[in-house]
Amino acid sequence: MDDKPRQPLRDLAECSLPAALEAMGERWSFLILRGAFNGLYHFEEFQSQLGIARNILANRLARLVEHGILKRDALPADRRKIEYRLTDKGEALLPTMLALRQWGERWETGMPSTPVLVDNRDGRAIQPITVRAWDGRVLGKRDLHWALPGDVAGDPAAEAAE
To answer: Which 3 state secondary structure label does DSSP give 86?
Structure first.
């Protein structure tokens, strides 16, 4: 039997996953983000590229703006024309988006997505997204356990209490 401490799943207030899922919504939000990461900025571009109904797109864009993932700016030349740009918070979702895409390639479609994301410096494909230890080691599920903040090695709060 596994005697490692488990995260209490009933106490959702202490877990950020439900809040993250609430901010993102559902699949259209992820596809809108994929579009934003690929240089789409205008309502009409999202609508034509994604084939999403206008009312659903308007709702999802408003939700992403409300959660600070996208920002909505009127263009100086034509205040009626709006651009949607990723915020820092939105750009921080890149590893999540890539991990989901890589997971889908491996477990759902069984084939690489196109186009392939490459490093600007050398044109080589990126590595798979992984969980890494503080020293760079790749970690799997068996290498991990949940700990309370004061029990984390190197945690300044735990060291101050000693």
So the answer is: strand
Domain ranges for the chain, please list them: 8-92
Q: Which residue bears the tokens 């809040």?
A: 19
Domain at 8-92: CATH architecture? Orthogonal Bundle (1.10)
Q: Say what the pTM is.
A: 0.81
Tokens 């263009």 -> residue: 75
- Integer Cα distance of 67 and 125 in angstroms: 31
**139 by DSSP, 3-state: which?**
strand
Question: Distance (Å, rounded) from C-alpha 32 to C-alpha 42?
Answer: 11
Q: What tens digit of pLDDT does each residue of 77-127 get?
A: 888 899 999 999 999 999 999 999 999 999 999 998 888 999 999 999 999
DSSP H/E element including 85: strand 82-86
